[in-house]
Predict the structure of Plastocyanin/azurin family copper-binding protein.
Amino acid sequence: MERDNSVSRRRVLSAAGAGVTLALLAGCTEGGGPGENNTTGGDNETTGGGDENETGAGGTDNETEAGNETGDANETGDANETAAGGSGEWEGVDEIVLDGITEGWEGVEPAPIEGETNPTLILTEGQEYDITWENADGQPHNIVIWDDNDEVVEDYQTEIIEEEGETQTLTLQATSEMTQYVCEVHIGTMIGEIQVESGG
């Protein structure tokens, strides 16, 4: 009788152990499933967070760049420059120097006419000026001051000279009648304007 009882107990214990083992295995499998889902969920949340951060940063960068471009619009404010050769640059000038060549009178002095062909001479009414010119090409030239009717003003003219390097100086007092200076030999090319302004 005792032997039968011990066999029975072993069987019961074995069966119970097998059941517990199966229950544990089932629990691990079920636990693993939700764990994986949670991990995936976590990954998705992280990825979503990254996207939001990138979008936010992009927006901030774009706004900053736009602001900088708008700030640079003030460059056009520097466009106001005073034109060279205005009457203000002729203040204190009492001598004008020219080179005489067949193609035209070439400005030498003062600075506003330097390098210009047939430059406009800006004179102040009543002021005395010396116009000095050099024969720069060995051709016959002279200088004459004309009025609106192409007539000589108050006999302001010089003799014709032909020697290259020779110079002449014409001294005059500026009057409102003066409108042009010319070479009588080359009227078609050697002719420039005179602008006489009233004195202060």
Notes: The mean pLDDT is 73. Residues 2-72 form one domain. DSSP finds one helix and nine strands in the chain.
